[in-house]
Amino acid sequence: MRMVVLLLSVMMVRVLLMDAVVESTAEFDPYKVLGVTRSASQAEIKKVYKRLAKEWHPDKNKNPEAEDMFIKITKSYEILTNEEKRASYDRYGQTDNTHPYGRGHHGFRHFHDNFYFDESFFHFPFNNKGGRDFADSKYTLHFNQYISEVVPDSFKRPYLIKITSDWCFSCIHIEPVWKETVQELETLGIGIGVVDVGYERRLANNLGAHQTPSILGVVNGKVSFFHYAVVKGHLMQFIEDLLPQRLVEKVTDKNNQEFLKSWHELNKPHVLLFDQVPSVPLLYKLTAFAYKDYVQFGYVDQGLSETADLLRKFNINTYAPTMLVFKEDVEKPADIIQAKGMKKQIIDEFISNNKFLLAPRLVNQKLFDELCPVKQFHRRRKYCVLLITGEEESFATGNEAFLSLASANTNDVLRFAYVYQRRQQPLCDVLLKNKDSTLPQVDQVVILERRNGAGKILYKPVSGGWNGSKEDKHKLLEELERLQKDPSILNNDAVLPELNNEFTSMFLIRWIYTAYDYLAEIIDDLLHNNWREVMPLLSLIFSALFILFGTVVIQAFSDSSEEKQPKTKAKEASKAENVVLDITYTSNLVKLRPGHINVVLVLTDPTKNILLSKFAKEVYSFTGSFTLHFSFLNVDKHGEWMAAVLEYAQDAMQIDTDEDEAGSRKLDYTGYVLALNGHKKYLCLFKPVYTGEDLDSKPEEEGGGSRSRKGTTRSRSTTLQIHHKLDRLGLWMERLMEGTLPRYYVPAWPGLDKITVNK
């Protein structure tokens, strides 16, 4: 009886699972995706694919489902253009990887060798709505988005990124902790990202993520992996550890004056946060990281006895966090904010309004651009009142008077700043070009307005110089009042050079700090046995040592005799000429050994001699590789094969443009170079670059020989352009050896019928 029940149960499960297989395979039909019949020819399929690929390309179509549809279209095209896969689908309703989104064999598995089961039958919670968690959809990252947005933004705030996939069982277990942590981190301003390996394999490889789930952080463009148990406390600590050290200085009664008085050396306002917790809050560290280029941050622990004098001096309320900003006056804060629930938006607004000193020193071009922005509209004029002074003690009185005037300014249109003439000599030379050199050296005030980003300004020096007297102040204020009524008083124009970066000398210190952080990360990776991530670095180090050792050995044993150099060069030239061989289709492409690549130059009969000579010189340094073969292809004879192969190297967004151009004129493939991998069926493409001068622009000589000279010049110009088509081939070859070139995969190499001579 038990056997009968067991048999019936097995049969029912089998029927249910087979139904699930049928239902799941019916979800993806390449014929329905492309909208073609089962009897459609290859030409019809290719035409429909081009149209749909252009319509659903994610860069052009902003529909949220455009990316998924584009992947389905590409997958359908791969199946229907491959005879074996198409026949398998027509016969069995599936292929080895029919399931969309490239999940390979995850969908179906053998069971007792006579039926299959489909994992999607169980409807896991992470496999809804196209395989993506709805909660994670707003954080989804794409490769281009990561490169253009996340990496630059990581210099202002850290990013926490989760690597996941549709069939990741472990991802389910960390999901509650992840969601709870993300909700809290978002309020702190931390960037969140989710990378689905099934959709963004390229980005996952770029990040170095080789397993799911993985969690990593990105700060200053550098990727760091999370190695601990996925709990909220560990993730919060991981974010804090990502931030650079020395962002916030602990301030007490002993060092507060030293901290506040460094405004002159650092040319930054200083901010003090008073709070009762012993460690610096994460929100405050994140703020310090975001504004590290503008403001210096300090933290005062109210619970310490060493900070009692500071609390009394500034009358701090110990029941709520307090933030003070100090500028040139270290005894009196320029602004203050106090709140029990100090939010990120409040802090950001407070710091943004106090990013600069009252009269900062122009130390680099970036600061100049922000203080004195380029005029955009008539109602948004910004005038910069610039004091040109010196560092000597004799200039102190005038500088203090200028600072006093800047402190009293309430007009948003005016910005006050100063420069040290010795440190910004090129700038001062332009602004003081009309100054009488016989006058004694004194400060000079210049009022200027920037007109464009190229450095053009309108300006007016204030006559009489500047020594800080009441007369000088009165004269400057009169000029500023006139400027408000009549901007045309700025009657001088000039083009300013780019400012010198006065903090360049600090580069070595920053480099040491960066090297220290990087070394600490390497040690951390070694301690956690994260060899997959460390191996590229170790490989780079050993490669550099090997190259260095090899160079020393070669120099020690090489014969540097000048008499043998001509013979050596002759041998090299003959060897370079022997590199270039005509293409034998079967042996050099179809049956090319795995790992070998054939580099093919495309030419015509008229350009053959010129291009072969240039090609031999450009590729000679790569002839020592046993995996590279060099050939040439005459496009006059094999143009049909060339056009068939290059169809796979066209971008989907440019298909219509290419077809329109091809219809109006015959495409010129002369100078193209193809790197063909016959075993893996992909190619890399080099397009010629014109760098030669046009000799037609030279004046012709007069006389009876004018016509013949013109013809000669035109011929020389054509020769020069053809010769320069391969100018950048050497750089392209280096990228080919590095494996960084785009690869265009070919479902099947064109048949031998494409190699016949065109009639």
TrEMBL record:
One of its GO terms (cellular component) is endoplasmic reticulum membrane. Residues 29-93 form the J domain. Pfam families: DnaJ (PF00226), Thioredoxin (PF00085). Its main location: endoplasmic reticulum. It comes from the Eukaryota. InterPro entries: DnaJ_C16_autophagy_reg, DnaJ_domain, DnaJ_domain_CS, DNAJC16_TRX, J_dom_sf, Thioredoxin-like_sf, Thioredoxin_domain. Plays an important role in regulating the size of autophagosomes during the formation process. Residues 1-26 form the signal peptide. Transmembrane segments: none annotated. This is DnaJ homolog subfamily C member 16. SMART domains: DnaJ (SM00271). It is a single-pass type IV membrane protein. Keywords: Autophagy, Glycoprotein, Signal. One of its GO terms (biological process) is autophagy. Residues 695-719 are annotated as: Disordered. It comes from Cyprinus carpio. It is found in: Endoplasmic reticulum membrane.
